[in-house]
Amino acid sequence: MTKKLFVKTYGCQMNVHDGERMAELLAGQGYEQTDRAEEADMVLLNTCHIREKAAEKVYSDIGRLKPLRAAKPDLRIAVAGCVAQAEGAEIIARAPSVDLVVGPQSYQNLPELLARVDRGEKVVETEFPAEDKFARLPGRKTRAPAAFLTVQEGCDKFCAFCVVPYTRGAEVSRPLARVLDEARTLVAQGVREVTLLGQNVNAWHGAEGGLAALVRELARVEGLDRIRYTTSHPNDMDDALIAAHGEEPKLMPFLHLPVQSGSDRILKAMNRKHRAADYLALVQRLRAARPDLLLSSDFITGFPGETEEDFDATLALVEEVRFGMAYSFAYSPRPGTPAAERTPVDPDVAHDRLLRLQALITRQQREAQESMVDRVLPVLFEKPGRQAGQMTGKSEHLMAVSVTAPETLRGEIVPVRITAALTNSLSGELAA
Ligand code: SAH
Ligand code: SF4
Ligand code: F3S
Q1: What is the pLDDT of residues 286-309, one digit of tens each?
Q2: Residue 282 near residue 290 (C-beta atoms within 8 A)
Q3: Please, which of 1, 272, 289, 334 could form a disulfide with 246 given CB 3.0 to 4.6 Å?
Q4: Which ligand 2 atom is the nearest neighbour of the CA of 233?
Q5: In which element (H, E) is residue 296 found?
């Protein structure tokens, strides 16, 4: 009999992808995915520890499952992801209805872990095993034209605010041959675009030449038309990778390159190991290689010690770069990180700065989107749009585009004339 699995994922794209892989693995155990928690036999909360709010959500979610559990006593509740890794057995102590806690480096063991749950055990698995977890996962199965592909995991950077080095462990790169095999498997299933994932994806060293070499190998895979990667660190942006942006047409002209702050004092306190001017010089070199490159970034406001002057430096950096989009967050102290020991900035001040920064970023995003109007852009159609008769897809600059188009164009890259810039997407018409 098939059982039903409900997965709820928080956090980064890596977590989204891990959620997909866990669902694929559990499909082999007779679990069929549902988007309705009420009919689930197992609920998998795939959690994020990055900010306090994200980490606390898991407990409110578990609370909300109470009536379901009351109605269905053998409902399984599993907690995966970075909160699982960070809090381990504490989760079951605080929320006894949880059956299983599994960290991101152990999810390949889910079938065995669930068998132990079936025998009545409460199971906590947060080891960092030495084995290649990908070797133990089932082959990829996807029907989407664009797919994620994990090439690197973990982080050795230890930014003073961040839990990721603790929740995801040390940097590990998957070998070139394995990545190429997986890419070919995806392409054989109709995938035209891959996004290479890693916590520090440009620190990939699965072969000589680093990420640039991997991009160039992937570009030779016939049928694969678009390559992206995320998230990169400014200090790992080497000459070869910058050059690849100019020379490799399959490498898309959109780059997420987090900078966090525009103040040298704060960058130092954050342990980012570069100055604002280094970042600006890097942006200049990238744009010299690929003039239409659109940049995106992450920012934190109200990091301990941040003054109004430091914040002005962040605004100045944003003004100078002109981002296509960016994510920004008010600083959240995280247990176990060095910054959590420092005197915090007043949360109201941090929030006020966040709003000012977001207003500036929103203006820049709007400008980037408006610059696309009247242009003819190649769009990879991914799925039906919100309105009947519409398809949505992505432009090379990773902007969502909605077009009246037949569903048969799913998986095709088609020229689209952009007619309007909406808040978070573009609309257009088939140009052919
Ligand atoms: N590996 C990536 C992303 C890490 S997490 C990188 O190096 O950039 C994604 C973003 O969350 C970070 O870039 C940072 O802007 C934000 N973030 C991380 N820890 C945070 C904290 N304690 N408070 C607020 N924002 C945080
Ligand atoms: Fe966190 Fe810094 Fe590593 Fe990014 S580089 S994951 S922000 S420690
Ligand atoms: Fe969150 Fe873990 Fe990703 S803390 S941002 S889910 S690496």
Answers
A1: 999 999 999 999 999 999 999 999
A2: no
A3: 289
A4: 5
A5: strand 294-301
> Is 31 annotated as a binding-site member?
no
**Number of Cβ within a 10 Å radius of residue 109:** 19
Give, rounded to a whole angstrom, the gap between the first and last alpha carbons of the chain: 49
Tokens of 335: 């247990």
Collapsed DSSP state (helix, strand, coil) of residue 13: helix
User: Is-contact 158 199, C-beta < 8 A?
Assistant: no
Nearest to 76 by CA among 131, 133, 37: 37
The domain made up of 133-370 is a member of CATH 3.20.20.80: no
Determine the average pLDDT of the residues in 224-241.
Answer: 98
d(CA 406, CA 408): 5
Q: Which residues contact 353 (CB under 8 A, 6 or more apart)?
A: 301, 302, 306, 311, 330
pLDDT per residue over 309-343, tens digit each? 999 999 999 999 999 999 999 999 999 999 999 99
Query: What's the alpha-carbon Rg for the chain, to the nearest Å?
Result: 22
Residue closest to 172 by CA, chosen among 102, 229, 105, 82: 105
133-370 shares the fold of 3-125: no
- Pocket (CB within 6 angstroms of ligand 1): 50-51, 161-162, 164, 199-200, 231, 233, 258, 260, 298, 300, 329, 331-332, 334
Quickly tell me which residue has 């669930």 as its tokens. 114
Q: Taking all residues of the chain, what is their mean pLDDT, rounded to a whole number?
A: 96
Cα distances (Å, whole numbers) of residue 233 to 256, 258, 260, 329, 415: 9, 7, 11, 18, 33
Ligand nearest to the CA of 337: 1
Is the torsion defined by CA of 196, 197, 200, 205 positive or negative? negative
Ligand number nearest CA of 158 is 2
Q: In the CATH hierarchy, which fold is given to the domain comprising 376-430?
A: OB fold (Dihydrolipoamide Acetyltransferase, E2P) (2.40.50)
The token pair at 52 is 């306090």
Structural fold of domain 3-125: Rossmann fold (3.40.50)
Q: How far is the CA of 12 from the centre of ligand 3 (A)?
A: 5
358 is in an annotated binding site: no
Cβ-in-10-Å burial (0-12, 13-18, 19+) of 278 comes to: middle
Residue that is written with structure tokens 């018409």 in the block: 429
CA–CA separation, 384 and 324 (whole Å): 25
pLDDT score, position 146: 98
Q: CB of 383 within 8 A of CB of 397? A: no
Domain layout of the chain by residue ranges = 3-125, 133-370, 376-430
**Length of the chain in terms of residues written:** 432
